[in-house]
Sequence to fold (55 residues):
Amino acid sequence: MARTGRPKSENAKKKVLSIRVDADTYKRLCAYAKANKMTITDVVLKGLDKALSDS
Fold:
């Protein structure tokens, strides 16, 4: 019997982070994501990658 469901990813994201931001920061984040046709998660991951590669 064939396995069903979503195929396994090479780089599975198993860790969950939760942050709290003020309303203005959230609006800016949403506007940036929409303008660049990205998800909020993609924007945050891109920012983290940039911050971590600069150090």
About this structure: The chain is about 50% helix and 0% strand. The CA atoms of residues 31 and 40 lie 10 Å apart. Residues 40-54 form the longest helix (15 residues).
